[in-house]
Q: What sequence folds into this?
């Protein structure tokens, strides 16, 4: 009988261990842990840092001495037949949100605050602000960079950032997350050249996707301009740089 109870005790002991509640330090969430309350904390990918454009599409159009764009006197000088630069407002349309990432140059991406991602462009000396969780509707004023509302998109179609509030579920970091941006309140601008423009009624939708190759980081922006029933799509790729030594803002500075 004594031997029976010894064997029974040994057999039942592991069951007791497996039935115990998780303890701190063994995979359980620490007491009081809360879901990310802002877009920075919920970010599934890190897009911050310095980036340089990799011109793999529309090379002739984008790298032409007369671009961007022909006839506007952009960062590369005057267009054919021009004797003087056009007015600043017209010249700066080459660097509006719809086409700014198509202009060869460098970016500096930082967090302006926990819910605002800032993209500074050295070509044209422009700045875009991507707003997560906007607390109030955008101004009705139209500008070159417009008003951008951003959301994180996770694998499987889930979204973070806009919907991740204080009581929302935790959003774990995932390397395959994407950034979606919709920009309205735009002034008209150029896409690639003076022959490709968009009006004040256009809406810009962008998808930022980060990837890597042989240890080098890249991200690609697929952009769609919807304007008057027409949709035009472009794709731009950027490569991560180690620092900002080559980031040198130049050219247009007017932001309206």
A:
């Amino acid at each position: 009988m004594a031997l029976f109870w010894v064997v029974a005790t040994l057999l039942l002991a592991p069951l007791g261990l497996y039935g115990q509640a998780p303890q701190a330090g063994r995979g359980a969430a620490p007491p009081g842990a809360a879901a990310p309350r802002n877009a920075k904390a919920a970010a599934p990918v890190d897009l911050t840092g310095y980036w340089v454009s990799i011109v793999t599409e529309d090379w002739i159009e984008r790298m032409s001495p007369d671009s961007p764009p022909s006839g506007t006197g952009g960062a590369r000088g005057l267009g054919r037949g021009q004797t003087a630069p056009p007015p600043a407002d017209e010249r700066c349309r080459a660097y509006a949100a719809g086409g700014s990432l198509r202009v060869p140059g460098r970016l500096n991406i930082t967090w302006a605050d926990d819910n605002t991602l800032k993209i500074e462009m050295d070509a044209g000396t422009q700045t875009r602000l991507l707003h997560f969780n906007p607390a109030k509707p955008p101004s009705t004023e139209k500008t070159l960079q417009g008003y951008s509302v951003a959301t994180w998109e996770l694998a499987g179609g889930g979204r973070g950032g806009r919907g991740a509030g204080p009581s929302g579920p935790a959003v774990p970091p995932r390397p395959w997350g994407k950034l979606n941006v919709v920009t309205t309140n735009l002034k008209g601008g150029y896409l690639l050249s003076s022959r490709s423009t968009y009006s004040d009624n256009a809406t810009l939708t962008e998808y930022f996707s980060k990837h890597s190759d042989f240890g080098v980081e890249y991200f690609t922006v697929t952009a769609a301009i919807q304007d008057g029933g027409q949709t035009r799509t472009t794709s731009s790729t950027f490569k991560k740089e180690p620092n900002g030594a080559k980031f040198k803002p130049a050219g247009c500075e007017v932001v309206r």
